[in-house]
Structures are given as structure tokens and as C-alpha cells.
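User: I'm putting together a small comparison set for a docking exercise, and I want a reference complex before I start. The sequence is below, and the ligand is magnesium ion. Could you produce the 3D structure with the ligand included, as C-alpha cells?
Assistant: Of course. I'll restate your input first, then give the C-alpha cells for the complex.
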Amino acid sequence: MMKITDMSQLASYAANPEQSRGRKFPEPLPQGRNQFQRDRDRIIHSSAFRRLEYKTQVFVNHEGDLFRTRLTHSLEVAQIARAIARNLSLHEDLVEGIALAHDLGHTPFGHAGQDALNACMKNHGGFEHNLQSLRVVDYLEQRYADFDGLNLTFEMREGILKHCSVKNARLLGDVGERFLKKQQPSLEAQVANLADEIAYNNHDVDDGLRSGLITLAQIAEVQIFAEHLAQVRQKYPALEGRRLVHETVRRMINTQIVDVCTQSRLNIAEANAKNIDDVRKQFPLIAFSKKMQKQQLALKQFLRTKLYQHYRVNRMSAKANRIITELFTAFAGDIGLMPDEFQEYAANHQARAVADYIAGMTDRYAIREYQRLFSVSEREL
Ligand code: MG
């Protein structure tokens, strides 16, 4: 059997590392690896990637060892994205890299942290975690002798930047262009994007049930869950508890992957996309069927009202907001409170340097910084 890495196995509309638009700082071609593999490897070796382990997805890291973190979320996105990419003969290394990097710019404490930092940055260009992921790989990682950042290929950077305002797009150069021209990124980027959605919807169901914040009876009202639950119950009438949940969730993930592959194949054929430039000029070709779109939406709405806005999640969000806002106020008021490496940049970009510092923190680092700055005990004095 031929390996997928063999270029003859790549579809003509896939991204091809041999035809990459290249890197900002030209480098010799890697030996024994393709360009997207090198990108993926650089992402895994970055310090921002290691910090994902201690950043909140929905549940704060210390709430329990079994909940998803940004790291395990990113790994699940990569797994789902690769399954779809292989099925559609797209470039697996590219989708994997995008999936692993897509949340590198996330703040501590999940969306509550991002919203708080965005509010703090209101008069300084705002804060958006997706844009921050690009900033991490373009500037903030400092590991290489010849350049700041990871110097990734255009295709990897294009995929990491999922959305972007017109105002920011103008400042971004090459990867911003498509937002001005209203074009699409590669199919690999589109796959990583949908895989993110499949991953979080399903694992949030799983984590939500595990936490007890939502119940099986509640979620059984949601059509996509109900359909798969019925399949499991028919096959295993006595099954209960965690196994029942997992058997249901794994079926939902599978159905969604098959749905995306089937619908996307139809879309690609209909659009007559022959190469990556055809893909860029089309509407998004990687998509769910109409039926699945509806079901996904219903699931998302359920999760929003019953899980993300649960009072216990709200309490954690309120705490996160307070920590982030007070850290920002303290550092922006006196950049001398930040570690040396952030002070240099802060001399000319005060607010942005503070946002970079805070966004890079893990949950527990942010909590400790908060305690170090604001708690007064005799022992510490
Ligand atoms: Mg994500």
C-alpha cells in the first residue's frame, strides 16, 4: 500500500509543500521531511505548546484531572482533522500543524480570560486569541538564532489565522489578504476549522456530563445526541454510566466526520476545484450537510445555555475576569512589575506587551502572579 506522504496520493486541490509560498526568512529545504512536517515539529517544540497543558478549555485545570485542557483539546482536533484529511487526500501534516497551533494564543481561563483581556485592550487594538496564535508563531516564540517566531510557511500561517477584522487584515500583509478579497484558505485550513468544532462540541458534552453540570436526561432532548443514544441503547440495553456516554459520543464524532467527508467531496466536485487557487476563490468547500448543520447548531445552543452559562461556570468566569483585569491594570500602570524580557518591548508598546505577557500565562501562573501582586501576608513580606 502506498503511503499518504507520497505526493501521488495527494489530491490536486490539496496544499503541496513543494509549491509552498514559502517562509518570511528563506531557509534551506529540510532533509527527510517536507516543509509542513518541519512546521508541525516546530510547533510541538515551542514553549507556547507546552503551556497548553495548563490552560483551561471550559473547566479550570484544578477542577479535576479528567477534564479537557487546551492541550488535549488541540490533540483531539488534530486527530479529527487528520482523519478527514486522509479521507479527502489532503495534506495531513498541514492540517495537523494548524490543529496543534490553533489555540496557542489562548489566554488563561478560556473564553472568560479572552473576553476580559479584550475589554482591557479596548483602546489599544483589542485582543483576539486567534490573532494572538499567529503572533505567537510569528514573533513571540524566541528560540531560533536567525529570526523571532517559528518562521512557518505561508500555508501554515494562513491556516492558523481563522478569522480577522478588515482593520487587522490590512496590517497583516500576505495572510491578511484573503479577508480583504473575501477568499478562502486552503482545504486543510478549512478542515482544521471544522475539526475544532467537532472536537469541542463532543468533548464538552462529555466533560459537561462528567462534571454533573448537565444531565443525561437534559442532553437526551438534543436530537443528535438522542439519535446516537438510541442506537447504543438498542445494541446494549443494559449499558449505563460512563460507557453509555462514551459509546454515544464516539458515534456522534464518527457520524460528523463521515458527514463532512461526504458533503465536502460533493462540494469539491460541484465547484470543479482543480487546484488550491480554485479552492481559494470558492465558498468554503469543507462543510457539513444541511441536516448536520442544523443538528450542530441545536447542540451548540444547548451547550451555550446549559453548560457555558451554568452558574458554576459563571462564577469561575467572574473570578477569571477579576484576575485578568487586575493583573492588566497593575502591569499597565507600572511596567516595572513585569519580568525583564517584557519590559523592553513595553517601552514602546506598553498595552500590547502586557497583553502578550498575560495571554502567555497558564491558569495557575496567573493565579500565582495575582497572589504575588495582591496578597499581603507576613510570610511573604
Ligand atoms: Mg479550539
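Residues 73, 102-103, 196 surround magnesium ion (CB under 6 Å). The chain has a mean pLDDT of 93.
User: Thanks, that's exactly what I needed.
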